[in-house]
Automatic annotation (TrEMBL), chain A:
Originating organism: Rhizobium straminoryzae
Compartment(s): Cell membrane
Alphabetically ordered keywords of this record: Cell membrane, Membrane, Transmembrane, Transmembrane helix, Transport
Domain of life per record: Bacteria
Membrane topology: Multi-pass membrane protein
Alphabetical GO biological process terms: transmembrane transport
GO cellular component assignments: plasma membrane
Annotated family: Belongs to the binding-protein-dependent transport system permease family.
InterPro entries: BP-dependent_transpt_permease (IPR050366), MetI-like (IPR000515), MetI-like_sf (IPR035906), OppC_N (IPR025966)
Domain ABC transmembrane type-1 per the UniProt entry, residue ranges: 85-274
PANTHER family named in the record: OLIGOPEPTIDE TRANSPORT SYSTEM PERMEASE PROTEIN APPC, PEPTIDE ABC TRANSPORTER PERMEASE PROTEIN
First-listed, main subcellular location of the protein, grouped into a coarse class: membrane
Regions that span the bilayer: 20-41, 89-113, 133-155, 202-231, 251-274
Name of the protein in its database record: ABC transporter permease
UniProtKB/TrEMBL annotation, chain B:
Domain (ABC transporter): residue spans on this chain: 6-252
Assigned protein family: Belongs to the ABC transporter superfamily.
Cell membrane is among the record's keywords: yes
UniProt topology in membrane: Peripheral membrane protein
GO terms for cellular component: plasma membrane
InterPro entries, per the entry: AAA+_ATPase, ABC_Ni/Peptide_Import, ABC_transporter-like_ATP-bd, ABC_transporter-like_CS, Oligopep_ABC_C, P-loop_NTPase
Native organism taxonomy: Bacteria, Pseudomonadati, Pseudomonadota, Alphaproteobacteria, Hyphomicrobiales
Keyword Transport applies: yes
BP-aspect Gene Ontology terms: peptide transport; transmembrane transport
Gene3D superfamilies: P-loop containing nucleotide triphosphate hydrolases
Organism (species): Rhizobium straminoryzae
Protein name: ABC transporter ATP-binding protein
GO molecular function, one term: ATP binding
Family matches, as Pfam families: ABC_tran, oligo_HPY
Compartments, as annotated in UniProt: Cell inner membrane
Length: 286, 323
């Protein structure tokens, strides 16, 4: 079948525009840093050195350089930042996956079965969207206790309706396409229709939502950690670093500034890439 | 002709309580091509959907029976019907390109029925799909099977759809305006192909169309529908030779002829097709019929057989030739 590709025209691959490229590089770099944290970090993120508390960037002690300074317990800010990237990305990835799968399945079912199933699911979506996420987070953490898993659960519980709404709307329109009808007339069951004919055709829109949600999840995780409802100390997290850094902003600006910058860069990169994917997948943009 | 393959008896379909198909009956014999003709909204497609047991959400089967080779379809469960669809009964649509999943290779889409109904997978299914593509006249079937619908022309897509429909050797194929979206030369090719496959496989065809040219080319027998009812049925030659319902007569008169004298304006049937739910009392064609009298406006003419070859629902069947 190699001959086919040579003879028939295919849509040409467009390269990533220069406005997006640096941000894609930043995202890839952050991902690599998070994955390779133990190799990249100059120090152990949890080792305290009370003699080197609140030292400015560039401080040297015991033959080690604190490139981004040290925090209130004398821990290396750079190392904590690197390990914090792990938490941010992992929480965002896990909650996007979980809420994405759940929301998509539920939204597709609502659109496919219509009737009372649709009413039930879509009204539930409305209800969940009207519950303040922070309130739900406080209640959940109060009941279950703060932990990595619970942060993911809280985020998934509050965010699945976004995917459900998109999957619902897209399924409604795709389910009326002649090819879905034809497949039904050929004896395909509902599972085959949903998984083989509808899902691939709505996946584009869902991927865009997932990318934009990913950025939001990073911020949400930081927010929960800032409030003390997220990942617990001593585990490094950007949100928690911001929270402690707040107390020392006047005297040790570096503790809060660097995690803030990191968050800003990560979320900006993800959002720009998400916008780019949306433009690429949007038929009106072609 | 022993017993018919498909027998539709007094079929009624309603949408929101309004009848759209109002007691229609017809039979199709093994290997026969029956053409269901009528204007948009006369209930042709609804009839087809009821035979497949897949009416749109809003529509309801409110009466009558559909028998496939002695089995009453409306008595079957959804699972039993699913086993018939694509297997004994198949259907093709009028939008060939939109009817293929844009993200699935052609071969894969044809294999689907084999996977669903025959439990066939892998190389065997692939082989069968490629053979079927060759059978419907697609050149280089191995290459085409690995392509996506956007890489094929409309006519090719229609052939692929026919291949999908016929891969399990159904006994009845329902073709809902199969050539409407195609240009004329491709139309002729597709019609030839369907006829050839009928001759080879003995698949009966219920051909739904509004195109009298297609009817003349393809059908063995014709059933003309108007406002939810069958108003005339006859073998195709007999119908074109002599119409006994004024609607059929006028319908054929509106078709321009190449061999006739050139006219400045084409004849039209006065008035409009009545909307669903606004059907008049008595004969539904009476407001537009030149022969209509008080009797027509009061009582519905029954579909009465004539000369042993067809039947007509008109009180004035013997005067129709004079229109």
């Amino acid at each position: 079948m190699a001959a086919t590709t040579a003879t028939t025209p295919r849509p040409t691959k467009r390269s990533i525009p220069w406005t997006v490229l640096p941000f894609a590089a930043i995202l890839v770099a952050l991902l690599l840093i998070a994955i390779l944290a133990p190799l990249v970090a100059p120090m152990d993120p949890n080792t305290q050195n009370l003699l080197a508390r609140l030292k400015a960037p560039g401080f040297q002690a015991r033959g080690m350089t604190y490139f981004l300074g040290s925090d209130e317990l004398g821990r290396d800010v750079l190392s904590r930042l690197i390990y914090g990237a792990r938490v941010s990305l992992l929480v965002a990835f896990a909650s996007v996956t979980l809420s994405g799968i759940f929301g998509t399945v539920v939204g597709m079912i609502a659109a496919f079965y219509r009737g009372w199933t649709e009413t039930l699911i879509m009204r539930l979506v409305d209800i969940v969207l009207s519950v303040p996420a922070i309130l739900l987070a406080i209640i959940t953490v109060a009941v279950l206790g703060p932990s990595f898993a619970n942060v993911v659960i809280v985020l998934s519980m509050t965010r699945w309706p976004r995917y459900a709404r998109v999957a619902y709307g897209q399924t409604l329109s795709v389910a009326n396409m002649p090819y879905v009808r034809l497949s039904r007339f050929m004896g395909a069951g509902w599972l085959r229709l949903l998984s083989r004919h509808i899902l691939p055709n709505i996946a584009g829109a869902l991927i865009v939502v997932a990318t934009l949600e990913f950025g939001l999840m990073v911020l949400f995780e930081a927010g929960l950690s800032f409030l003390g409802l997220g990942v617990q100390p001593p585990t490094a997290s950007w949100g928690a670093m911001l929270a402690t850094g707040r107390n020392y902003v006047a005297t040790a600006w570096w503790i809060a500034t660097f995690p803030g910058l990191a968050l800003f860069l990560l979320v900006l990169s993800i959002n720009l890439i998400g916008d780019h994917i949306r433009d690429r997948l949007d038929p009106r943009g072609r | 002709m022993s017993h018919p393959l498909l027998s539709v008896d007094e079929l009624r379909v309603t949408i929101g309580g309004q009848p759209v198909v109002d007691g229609i009956s017809f039979d199709i014999a093994q290997g026969e091509i029956l053409s269901l003709v009528g204007e948009s909204g006369c209930g042709k497609s609804m009839t087809a959907f009821s035979v497949m047991g897949l009416l749109p959400r809003a529509a309801r089967l409110s009466g009558g029976r559909v028998m496939l080779d002695g089995t009453e379809l409306s008595a079957l469960t959804e699972t039993e019907l699913q086993a018939l669809r694509g297997n004994e009964l198949a259907m093709i649509f009028q939008e060939p390109v939109a009817s293929l999943n844009p993200l699935m290779k052609i071969g894969r889409q044809i294999e689907e029925s084999l996977i669903v109904h025959r439990g066939l997978e892998g190389r065997e299914a692939r082989r069968a799909a490629i053979d079927m593509l060759a059978e419907v006249g697609i050149p280089e079937p191995e290459i085409r099977a690995g392509q996506y619908p956007f890489e094929l022309s409309g006519g090719m897509c229609q052939r692929a759809m026919i291949a999908m429909a016929l891969i399990c050797r159904p006994r009845l194929l329902i073709a809902d305006e199969p050539t409407t979206a195609l240009d004329v030369t491709i139309q002729a090719q597709i019609l030839d192909l369907m006829k050839k496959l009928r001759d080879e496989t003995g698949t009966a065809i219920l051909l739904i169309t509004h195109d009298m040219g297609v009817v003349a080319e393809m059908a063995d027998r014709v059933a003309v529908m108007y406002a939810g009812r069958v108003i005339e049925t006859a073998p195709v030659d007999a119908l074109f030779a002599r119409q006994e319902h004024p609607y059929t007569r006028l319908l054929l008169k509106t078709i321009p002829r190449l061999d006739g004298e050139p006219k400045e304006t084409l004849p039209v049937i006065e008035g409009l097709v009545p909307d669903i739910g606004q059907w008049p009392e008595g004969c539904r064609f009476s407001p537009r019929c030149p022969l209509a009298n008080d009797a027509c406006r009061k009582a519905v003419p029954p579909l009465a057989s004539r000369r042993d070859i067809g039947s007509t629902a008109c009180w004035h069947a013997e005067q129709v030739g004079a229109i």
